[in-house]
Structure formats: C-alpha cells, structure tokens
Amino acid sequence: MNPATIAKLSQLQKTYVPSAETRAEIGNKTLVMFVAPSAMGKTTIENALVELNPAQIGRTRSFVTRAPRPNDDPNLYEFISPEKVSQIVNDIANRRVVQFAIHPTTGDIYGTYPHSFPAKINLLDTLSQVVEPLRKTFAQTLTIGLVTNPEIWLSRLRERYAGDPKTFIKRLNEARISVSWQLNQHPNDVFLLQNIEGNYAQTAENAMEFIDGTPIDQLIQNENRQMLRKCLQLIKEVA
Questions:
Q1: Cα–Cα distance list, 151 to 40, 85, 137, 154, 238 (Å)
Q2: Can you give the pLDDT at residue 76?
C-alpha cells in the first residue's frame, strides 16, 4: 500500500463512523475489547472465555492486509491479498466496515465488517486507538486491559521473536503505546485483568465475572495498575 493511501486512511481513522446501515447490522451485539501488548496472553484468555459459554460468546474475525504469521489462527483473521486491498479501501470510503485501524509501526490495515461479529457477546483484541470509535459504534461495550508479571511477559516476547531483533523492538514500541494508554484511562473505563501464569482458566473466570457485571475490587485494580507501571519501566529499560 502506497504512503499516500496510508496517510489518507490514517487521517480518516480519526473521525471514521460507519454508515447507519452498517451500524444497524450490529445493533444488538455486545463487544468486549482486549487491549494488551503482544505475548500478554490475549488469544489464550479469549479462547478460554469462549469455552465457558460457547452459546453466547464468540471471537471476532478481523480482516488484515499483512501476511500471515506462523502462529496465526486462520479462523480469527481474514488475510487480504495485495490485489484486494483496493476493495478494502473502497469499503472504508463508503463506510461499509465497522471499524479499521492503521497499525502504528507497519502501516497494515486491520478492521471488521458486520459479519465479523457472529455472537451475542463478541471478543476482540484491538489496538488502543480503535477503542473510542468502537465505544461510539456499539450500544454495549466493555474494555479489558490484560496484565501479567512483567519479567515473564518479556521472556515470552523474547522467545516469540528470537532471531528477529527488528520485530522484537517493534513489538516493544507497540507495547509501550498499549501500556501507556491503559495507564492513562479512567479506572471506570478499563478493567485491568491479571493473566495468572499457569491458571488461565481462573483468569477467564475472572473476566467472565466482569462481563456478567460483578462489582470490581478496586484494591486488586490498583495492584494490577502497579504491575503495568513496572511493565512500562521494563520496556523503557530494554528499548
């Protein structure tokens, strides 16, 4: 995709609103957004949540213009070939997509159509800059920021991108954006969920309680916020 198109879409992204017809197709859906750095465990927890209530909960299948990665789940991404990118750009111009985002470090387009949300409650791991537009698009949204032990997370990230130092640094920069965004959000707007190492089922149960409306324990939220601060400090030291 040429730089002029990326620049144009980046500008449109700031004010994008889907058409009335597009919004009507998702009018009765609930969207649960997960915001967290790569290797924080979003996919694992979302899959565990679906297993808790597969009749009501499903994962969102986004489209993306980047090439597939070895660990990608084809059921969760629709990979758009280069020759079809123009159709995506046209659909964005005509406001047929629900949302889209230009990746801050790669320039790839990520987005969704109405058919991307198949369940009553839909789970979506997303970039922080897309959260606010989606809150305005869906009648019911919840936002979960996933946190875990900073050292364990960094170890996972290093392992995932071993032998690819450039991508590792890109993911660190993305992590800085994600963690900083979570820390800057009002406590009532983002539920900070600790991904308990070795006990993903319990983490999913905790997420389900939040989705079901169980009151939030602010003491635990403060502890998770402190964990995020440590994660941000670690990113600054490594990057």
A1: 11, 38, 36, 5, 11
A2: 85
pLDDT at 105: 79
d(CA 116, CA 130): 16
**Binned average pLDDT, 10 residues per bin, the chain of 239 residues:** 86 92 95 96 95 96 91 86 93 96 88 96 92 93 97 96 93 95 95 94 97 95 97 94
| Predicted TM-score of the model (pTM) | 0.89
